[in-house]
Every structure is written in C-alpha cells, then in structure tokens.
Amino acid sequence: MSDNIYQITEFSFSEGVIKAHVLLNENHPIFGGHFPGQPVLPGVCQLRMVKELTEKALNTRLNMQQSDQIKFLSMIDPRKTPSLDVTITLQITEEKTTAQSMITMGEYTFLKSKAIYQNA
Question: Has residue 68 been placed in a domain?
C-alpha cells in the first residue's frame, strides 16, 4: 500500500497462485482510529491488500467489478498478529480476472473472498 500499512516480505506468483507474506505496521495512524485501544486492520484494507498483490502479480492496474463472497472470519490486531500470509488463486480470461483469496496466519483464517477485476 502506498500508505505503508503493510510491507511485503515474501512474494511469489506461479501457475495462477499468488503467495505473499506481509508485515503490518502497527504504528500506522489508521490503527489509532480503528479502534482506539483495540487496533483492528479494517476490512477495506484487507480487500485492498488482495487487490494490490494481484496487481503486482499481473503488473497491471485493476478495478474491482464484483465481489459476491467476502467473509471476515476474525479481527486482525496488529499487536497480536503482526504478520500475515496471503494466498490468491487467479482465473484469468481476456474479459476479467477472478481472484479467490485467503488471509491467514498459522491456524487462523481472517478473510476469505472472491472478487472479479477488470483492467483499469
């Protein structure tokens, strides 16, 4: 993210699968307001992270056209979970890119989503 909420420490894209490991910046101002005393990574930031990692893999800008499945399964507190694993499976056609994603750490799953993107 251009505003440094996270840093990519590992990244691979092979056979339609993106795997990334990211470190959260627990000192980012967003955590002071969301929520004071109980920082949580906002869901919109999680979805943006998935989009940005997909853009990095495809080396193109994308616009989300549809997301018919978004499940936030647990809150992400950057003090308790400072790093995350992101796995995104892509199906690419000329018209669209479908991304099924999961944000996890160890045995915990924080996000499962499916989104359809088109080139920006």
Answer: yes
**Domain annotation covers residue 111:** yes
Containing structural domain, residue 52: 6-119
Answer yes or no: is 1 within a domain.
no
- Alpha-carbon dihedral angle through residues 8, 84, 77, 72, given to the nearest 10 degrees: 110
Residue type, 103: I
Locus of tokens 């359809």: 116
pLDDT digits (tens, 9 = 90+) for 23-62: 999 999 999 887 778 899 999 999 999 999 999 999 999 9
SS3 state at 56 = helix
Instruction: Give the CA diameter of the chain.
Output: 46
* Tens of pLDDT, residues 87-105: 999 999 999 999 999 999 9
* 104, 85 Cβ separation under 8 angstroms: yes
